[in-house]
Each structure stands twice: as structure tokens, then as C-alpha cells.
Amino acid sequence: MDQQAATLLSTLKRPAAPSDSKINQLNALKSDIKHYRVPETAQSTIFECIRLAITQQASATLASTAFSTLGHLLKRLKIQDATGQAIRQLAPKLFPALQERMGDLREPVRNSASQALTELYSIFQTDVEQIVLEEAIGGNNGRAKETGMKWVLTMHNEQAMPFKAYASSIVARLEDADGQVRETAKTVLIELFSNAPDRAKTDLKKQLIAHGVRLSIASQILTALESGSRPQDNDTDMSASTRSLPGAEHIAHFAEELKSEAAQPPPPEIVPMDPIYVHTQRELEDVFREMHPHFEGKETEQNWMLRDKSVLKIRRLLKGNAANEFHTVFMAGVKSSIEGILKVSMSLRTTMSSNGCQLVQELAKTLGPALDPHVEILLQAFIKASAATKHIAAENGRITAGSIFQNCSYHVQMMRHIWQAAQEKNAQVRQYAPEWLMIVLKRQSSYRNSFENSGGLELAEKCIKKGLDDANPKVKEGNRVAYWVFAKTWPDKAEAIMSKLDPKMKAALEKHPGNPHAVLHASHPAVAQAARPAGTNSRTALREMLEEKRKAKTGGRVPPRPNSAMADISPVKNTRSTPLNGSTRAPSNLSKVTNRTVSTTSNASSTAADPPTATKKGSSLMSGPVRRPRRADPPRPQTADPYSSRRLLRPETPASNASPAGSPGRGTGASKASLATSTTSAVRNRAKVDATAGSPGGSHSASVDSGLPTLADDEGFTMVIPNLNGSQSRARSPLAYRNPMKAMFEDARERVGKLSPEAQKSMRRALEDGDGSEQQQGGPAKPSTPQTEEVQIYEDPFIEDGTQPGAQDDRQVLGELPINENVRADSPAQSVGSSASPVDSPVNNNDNTSTNSASTPTIPSQDRSDVLRDRRLLASAIERIRTKNLDAHGFRRVQDLARSKLDIWEAGKKFDELMSVLLEYLRTFDSDVKLTSLPASKSSGLKTQALGLVRALLTIYRKHAAPWYAKSLVTVIACRKGADPNSHVLADMHRTTDVIVSEASPEVCVDAILDALPSLTSIDSSSVIAMALTNLRQLLLTANTRDVELSSDRRGKMAQATARYLGDADSEVRKADVELASELFETFGESKAEFWSEFKGVEEGRLGLLTYYIAKKGKNGVNGVVA
Predict the structure, then answer these.
(1) What digits encode the pLDDT tens for the residues 498-538?
(2) Mind telling me which Pfam families this protein's record contains (predicted)?
(3) Which of 713, 708, 681, 741 is nearest to 591 (CA)?
(4) What is the pTM for the complete model shown?
(5) Which residues contact 1058 (CB under 8 A, 6 or more apart)?
């Protein structure tokens, strides 16, 4: 064996010797070691042969054979000498070779070296630990680090080696520049501590904090430790497990102390890049110094590629060791390059911009609080970038700003940036604001006191309030999510916010998936359906079952159910002595309008019905003559004609059994047919009820506000038109005592006097003008047979939902029969047989009317009611605009009236009255306490609708509008003060002024604005002055276009006005003034000196600026200046 070992040694020392020869000789020696005793004289030579074979790079097989020989040699020497003396003396010469092989490129070689250290550990414990801890794990070779950490794990699992001494070095590798080393360290730590006691895990948490391990990696380790410690086998007996839910809270406590958000793995690299390692500070300084020239100036075709490469180099340095080993120099370099990085991030080249944004994100995630000095400038830039129209640029800005909010230290200035983003005009930025707000709220949930004391909580509340009231649905949705995140930490504040919301907004917020109790606010129709008995699913079966029960109770004396709720009519009793309660009526229930019992006395007919029908009581299950629940009306837009598709129910109550003189005969069959058909009409109807009257002068009617309260589910109130001028008492027929609407009419008469004198006068004038053509002119009044009086009930569309105090007590029959619509020509109720209008009524008396003056055109009979209705609605609208009680929907209805072709203006009187109150409404809008207390969205909506009404009136009725152009223009300009620059109301104002300027006479409007300028100046609003000057310029351009020459006095006054505001402190006013002066200069023609004479006393600098702009307009301006 001595000769064999010597031969092998000489062969290994010869580099030119073939590898196969070396392997064969080494295998022969290994075979002898396995079977024979190794002499002491050959032991040293054999160790040297193994060392040489391990260090040779020519053949992997040779190295593997050498490691295998070493294993057999160690076993043989332990057998020969249990003390291991020979191994202690000869094995240390192998340590450098083993250390080198632990970083070998070939994994089998690394594994063999690790196994060799394992075999030597029992004898050389201290030396092996030093090699692994300092040379392998703590070295510079990434593969050696991985091998050393895996060796520690193997030794702990196989030989129960304590790993506490290695924990700190392995934790340090979690921040290694090599991603594979980080992954190996994370895996090894999870395996080592998975079965460790809680004390060891606490030490691990301290080590993670001490080494500054990034939060995402630390959270992953802690979460994996918890999940790995729970039993995973389904067959495991869970009763024997000692792990319970508090363990999760324990780990969550660790994560909270680490200030960790959700355990998220680091995002994968979009473009993989190799790290750059630097060795000295000077080298790192030189790298940044070379970049500075590329970032200077603007982006050009020559420097954009160099800028992009510089950004990529910084990203590679960040992945290397620069940020950790040379932190101060690296931060100084970032500070010097931050402006260039922002230029790259804001570039129009998408790929280049994305690289810049990615760099800022990586800086925020890696440096964290070290980036705090640059947070302000970065947030300003990237919040602005999130408003870009290009989707990629906007997304990059959003994500980058979110990374800064997530990783940098919190400061109240961050909340101010979010608050500004929530107020942005760009909806895209407002949509991103709640996302950033949620990041801050989640981070600060553990630091409530500091967040509240710094003012952040107040800003967060303002952001959420404004976002929930935003017009954009996406912004609202994002803020609902932010609201429920906010509510988890500050429930009291969140409840206060919700209590101030509108019912619709509150309902949407409560039903949001982010609400932990959202399931309580959701309806479950399927469950309710399933709860019904299986045998009664059929409506027919249910009806039959109820019918049998009812017959069993009443002994079979119940009459058959009528086809319609209105078809079962009781006979008319002629005796007055009949008690009023002879016909029992089910009590009214205002909350159940659709399931009510209809009084049989509300209709009269000569056809007899079964006596029990008049006395039976109503049932809530449709067993008697009750209406079925009405289906909901199809949704209609708010701007649709409110009278375009509804049909009319028109119940008739004759004054006696005989028809009035001259009226068409009524047939019972026709009445019943019309009533049966009318049951399918809408609930809101308008009814005309005729009552006997004895006044010889004919019937008169006027429109008044009845003041009757509304049902909870109704949209408007009704206007009742009783006889205001009748001097004689009404002769009541027997049916009048049983009329179900008697209480309504009497109550209306009592409330007529409650209207203001102006309202009564306006209503009466509207009726008198509308009915003037119906009255016979001249001659004394002839006594005639008693005619029936008309009481018409109209719905006023200008009232919103609401109930007045005491409504439930006053509303009896009317509460169940809301009738407010007019009869249409195609209504099935409008039949010959059912017509109950008297001979002299305005509806039917078309043949006997005399021609009126030319101011009131002849109107067909089917439009007469529309004219009367629209006039009453117009009068009501004027009154409500005057009292500032008209809502936005009411303004839209007035616009519909203005666009109608009916004569409702009474030769222009009503037009002037409407324009007067409308302009007064706009002029005092911002000073009215009631209007200014409304939410911003409602007040802007009211102002927008009012301006739209002004435009409609001025464009449709040019003849009546001529005197109002100038007043309207001045009023709209004065309204500019209260308009938000970011609101859509401002656009409506400009649209209105453009309409006025295009339609009006320029001279009149110029004089009006010049006269109003002193009063507008007293408003102390630069925007008002700027708007006035801009409109003067538009009027000047319009005059030039129409070849209208302004007088010299007007031009002089306009020049004086421009001279007055040329030195104004506000730039917007100066700009508008210079533009006006430039246009005005051209109108002076040859007399330019008159123009300049008005500017005496103005600063030379201002005059120079004006001269410059005038000169820019052309050579004529230059000549004028010279003159």
C-alpha cells in the first residue's frame, strides 16, 4: 500500500497525466483501504493524494472519487485507532481544499465537501464551525453561503446540532445581494425554527429587527412559522393538538411590532438585471459623477438613451452592495441625481418613464425612511403624473406614489397631498386618492394618537366626506372602501360621517361589500319565497282557498267578486233621512294605498246592486271589491314630460238624477264601461266633481293652493280650484252628504284664504285671462236653471316629497284617492256617456264661446285644459321662485313649459314677471341663508337649472326677451363671484353669456356692463371683473362682425374702464383688460390719440406691455402707436 500510495502521488503531481489513469489508481487505493489495514507510513501520503485530487479542476469524477476515498479512510482509521490520533494530525491539511470546494460550480462537488465536513465534525468541532460560519456563510462566494447554511440545517436535523450560534449569520444573509442566497436563508430559517420553542422565535424576531430585514421577508418567515407549526396531516388526531387560535394572535403580534402590512412576497422583476458591486467609496462616487452631465438640461435625441442607461445603472447598484456597505455615499449620489430621476420619470417615452418610476419604487422599498428628505418633491411629481391621459403613465404615477406612502415615514404633509388629490379637477386623481388614503390609514392604525394630534384624522375625514359626495361613480366606490377601512379604527368618527349622508348615499354605503354587516342590509327574496307553503304557490289555488274560508265564515252569503274594484256600484238612495253610515266603509289607512277598500258612495249609478255589497267590509287579501296592488310605473327620466304618458281616472258625481239643461244624456252602461276601463290608469289623477250651485251668473273658477298634505309615497301636492267669487251658498244635493271628497273640498275652501294676496291675485288673473273667451260680453245677467260648479284638482309639480305637520289628521278620503292628472283626448274615461261637464263649462262649451281679443288665440277644446293647467303651473312656479322654494326638478318643468307651444304668457306679462323673479333669484343666490346651507351638489344643480331656464327664455321668446338681455348679462356676471372655478356651473355661466352676446344688441349690453362696473367692483371679486371685461371684448367683436359702429362716447367709456384695470393686482383681470384694450384700439381708426389720452397716469411699464400686445396685432396697430 505504501508503494501504491507513492505511485498515485507522483501521478497526481503530473498535470500531463491522463485523468483516467489517476481515477483508476485512486479507485484501486480506495479498494485496498476498504479491505485492508492502512499502515502508519502510508497514512500521510494517502491524505496528500486525497488533497491533490480534491483541488484538481480537470475532472469532476476525480474529485468525487477523492471524497469517497476520504470517507473510507476516516472510517478505517477510526477502526484502527479509536482515539483518532492520526486523523487529528493529518486531516487539518484538507481544510483549505474543502473550504474551496464548498463554493464549487458543480453541486455534487459542493455536496461531497459538505459531507466531508460532517464526517470531520466529531473530531474537529471548533475548526469545522469556524470554516462554515466565517469562511462559508460569512464569505463572499454565494454558492459557499448556500452550502454552509444547508450544512447547518443538515447537522441540526441529523445530529441535533445547536444552531443558535449560526442564527445571526443566517439572518444577515436575508439582506444578501444574491436573490438565491436570500431564498436559501429564508428556507433554512423556517426549517430550523419550525419546531423551536417560543423563546427561540422571540430571539429570531429580535434578530430580524436588529439586521434591518425588509418587512415583507420578515412577515413571510413569521407567517410560515405559524402555518408550519400547525398539524398538516388530515389523519392526525386533532384532540391531541396543543396548538390553538391564540397562536395566530401571537404571530400577528410579532408582525405588528415589525410594523408589517399584509405578508406579501416581493414582486418579481419585470426585466431581470444583474447587480453591480462596488468595492470602494471612490468607485461609487465616480459612478454618480459620470451620470450628472446626462441629466442636465432638457431631454434631447442625444441624451435620452444615456439617461435611461444611468437609471438602469442606479437600479443595478441598488441590487448590489452600494446601498448597504456604502450607504452614506449612495444616498448622497441619489440626492444629487434626484432631479434627473424625476426628469426621466416624467419623460414622454413610455419605456424610459417606466424605468424611472420603477427606480423610485425600488428606492422607496429598499431605503424606506432614508428616502424621507425627498418625499415632498417625489409626491408632488408622481401625484401630478397620475393625472396623465396616457394610461401607462398614470398607472406608473399611481403605483409609485403608493410605494412612497407605503414605505416612507409618515408625516402630516402626506395627508395634505392626499387631500389636495381628493379636490383635483381631474377625476382620475380623485379616483386614486382613496387608495393612497387606505395605505396611510392601515399604517397609522397602530399609532392613533400621533395621527390624530398631527391633524391627519381631520384631513382623512374631509377626504372621505368629499369623496362620498363626488359626482363620479368610480370615485364614490373607492371612497366607500376607504370609509370602511377608516371605520375599523375610528368607528365613532365613521358613524358621524354616515349620519350626515343622504338616504341614498347611506344605503349604498351600508350595502357595500366592505361593510362587515352588509349582509344585514341585503334583502333575501329567495328565502322568503322558499318559506311559503308548497301548496299555495299558485295564485289561483290561494284565491280558491281564501274564498272557501270566507264562505265558511259568512255562511255562503258572500256575493261574487266584481271584475273591477270600481265596477260594484251601490244604488242611489233618494231619501235624505238615510243615515250617513248606512253604507259601511272600511277605515282608511294612509300607509296602504294600494290595498284599500273603495267606498261605494264615491260613484253613483241607476243600476241596482246586491244590498250586501254596500255593507260588507273590505279584506286585506282581495276577497272583496278592492283593487289589486298596482305595479310600479316604469322608470322615466326626470326631464320627461310629466303629463305625456299618464291616463286619467275621472269619477263623476251628478248633482241630481236629471242631466242639466243642454247637456248630453248619460247612459248607465257608458258610465260603467268608462269606470271599468279607468281602473288601469295611474294612481295620480285629476278629477272634476260637479256640485249643484244656484248662482245665476254662471260658473267661475280660480286656481289656489289647497295646502293639503301629501302621502309619504306621493311626489307632489294638489291645487284645488274652488269658486272664489260665488256670493251665494251652495245648494247641496242628497248625494253631496255621501260624497267621499266632501272633506277635501271643505278643507280646501278654508285654506284658500291662507295664501298671500299676491298669490291669490296671480291665480285669479290667470283664470280670468284663460276663461275670458268663455264669458258672454254685454247685457245683464239672465237668471237660468241651476248649473253645476266645477272643482278641479291639479297636481302642483313644483313640490318635492314631504309631509306637513298634521297631515294624517286632515287627509281622509283624499289620502286614498290622489287624483291629479288631466283628461287626455285618448283617455278611455273620456267617452260620451261618461261626460259630466255642464253646458257652460270651459271644457265642453266651445260652440257658445265668443271670439276674444287678438292677444288670446283660439285654442282647440282638447288643448284648453292644457293651457289652463300650464298657466296655473307657471303662476305657482313664479311664486316658488320668488320664495326660493323651487327645486331643480321644478326648474326643469318650467323649462318644459317654456318650450311648449301654448299661449301661457298673457301678452308678455307673465314672461316679464318670470324673468324678474328669476334674475332676482340668481342675484341673491349666494347671499340667501337657505340656499347657501344646501350641499354643494344641490346648490350647483339649482344654479345650473336656473341658468338653463334663462337661456331657454331668451332664445325661444326673442320678442319678449329684448328688454331683458342687458339685465340678464349683468346678473350672470355678478353671479360669477360665488362660482367654484372647478365647478360645471362656471361653464353654464359662460354658455349663458355667449347666448346673450350673440342675440342682444351690442350697444345696450355695453352700456349695461359699463354702468354696472362700479357696483361689480364693490363685490371685491377679481373673477367678476375679469368676466365683465371678457364680455365687453366679446360684445366689441360682435359689433365689428355685424358692422355696428359704437359711438365715440361708448368707446371713450370703454377706454376709461380698460385704463382703470390695467394695473390691477390680479393677473386674470390684467389679461382680460389687455385683450379688451387691444381690440378696442382698432375701433378708434385714425383718432388713436383719443385712445391714448384715456391712459394718462398709468404706469409706464403697464403701457409698454399694452403697446407690445397692440403691436403684435399688426402693422395698423404699430402705426397707431407711432402716431
Answers:
(1) 988 888 888 888 888 888 876 665 544 443 344 444 444 45
(2) CLASP_N (PF12348)
(3) 713
(4) 0.32
(5) 1029, 1073, 1076, 1077, 1080, 1094
